[in-house]
Amino acid sequence: MSTNSHVDSPPGADAITVLDPRDGTVVGTLEPSTPEQVEIALSLARTVHPEWAATAPAVRGRHLRSAADALRAAAPELAELNARETGRPVEEALAGVHAGVSALEQYAELGPVHRGRALRGAVLAADYTVAEPRGVAVLLTPWNDPVAVAVGLIAAALVTGNTVVHKPSERCPHLGVRLGEVLSQAFPYGVLITLTGGAEVGALLTRQSGVDVFAHVGSSATGERIARVAALTGTHVLRENGGNDPLVIDADVDPVWAAEQAAVGAFANSGQICTAVERIYVHREISGRFAEALVEQARRRNDTGAFAPLVDTKLREEVHAQVSEAITFGAVRAIGGRIPEGPGAHYPATVLLGCTEVMRVMTEETFGPVAPVTVVESFEEGLARAAAGRYGLAATVLTGSIANAQRAVATLPVGTVKVNAVFGGAPGGSAQPRGISGEGFGYGPELLDEFTRVKVVHISSPSARTR
Fold first, then answer.
1. CB 51: neighbour CB atoms within 10 A?
2. What is the pTM of this model?
3. Strand-pair partners of 126
4. How many domains in the chain?
5. Residue 232 burial (CB < 10 Å; 0-12/13-18/19+)?
6. Cβ distance 391 to 437 under 8 Å?
7. Same domain, yes or no, for 233 and 335?
8. Disulfide check for 121: which of 9, 25, 46, 127 has CB 3.0–4.6 Å away?
9. Residue 467 located in a structural domain
10. What is the pLDDT of residues 54-96, one digit of tens each?
């Protein structure tokens, strides 16, 4: 457990050992938090919450700015830890740390101006709403963008007056502990606490009483388990979970440009992004040229020798199992799709042609550098196929038609629709995932609403009887 520091224990049977996915060398070993430490952390967070909640929002904002300065100073160290534990290139990891700095600075500004609303009532009365912190927030965060995602949630929770117990992913525990040490020094003791451990610690946290909000970014299966527990306890749940994001490509776009977009969406961070392109529907008129260009994009990435590995061999096995199954069911392996020799958890950029909905690469989240392609006869067919399925995180359409773009916005049942760009968007943007992809706002100003409750106040003029 870490409040302002972390104490290592001798490794035991449940110790977490992390291997560098680039070469298989040992990064280090950490003990998971014990049930007693979990209970102590939650008790401490509850104890210090009233004082932190009573702190003026502007003062809480100053604490966030101090945390931003500390995070900026520790950026090279944290980026290197990220690279060692998850395999993410240092430059990309550094960008994630700086995104965390920006989140702290953004919420330091937004928190103090987070306000209620005036309600129109009687002339001689006042009606308004007040936003109050929920209390103790338990944050369970992922490994694929571990600093940016965690810091965004931490910043929004703290600036609105909640205390935080944070459990980072067991796939990057050293990074999570060090991040907690860096940030917690900017806040009063016990306001931000870091725990270590895997699914068993996360499950223990969700079963504890006295938790007012759960925020989870990770798999849909875990998110659903948290939601079921919270339904019995009444705990507010905020979750961004898995995606199976489609890309629909119209006949009127440049197929080479479309392939570039598809490659960025499917292969960035080796496909380990919640909003990665997971399935592609391309119009038959440009399908041949598109496929050739997409294979070339994959080949360029594979030939550089610098293509980042997956986070570990377990995930690589899961990705390869989906690829192998698709090939068994009739998909054509245009490039990639084979586990390379040597140490580490590397997997090549892979393009599969002729895919159908009987294959898991088209219906489940793959979370690897795989681009499964299906040819459709019309944009409308592509939209219909894209709208099918249990997930509802995001979707992208590439089209030169305003009418088709509008049709996509109106019909795709997802939290975010992107037109003519697989990534991007304005700072502070937010969305509400649907289906098994989650619930609640995960980013932007609306995230402050997730960490607060609204109280309605009605004040009337005193009557003559009160004199």
1. 12
2. 0.94
3. 459
4. 2
5. exposed
6. yes
7. no
8. 127
9. no
10. 999 999 999 999 999 999 999 999 999 999 999 999 999 999 9
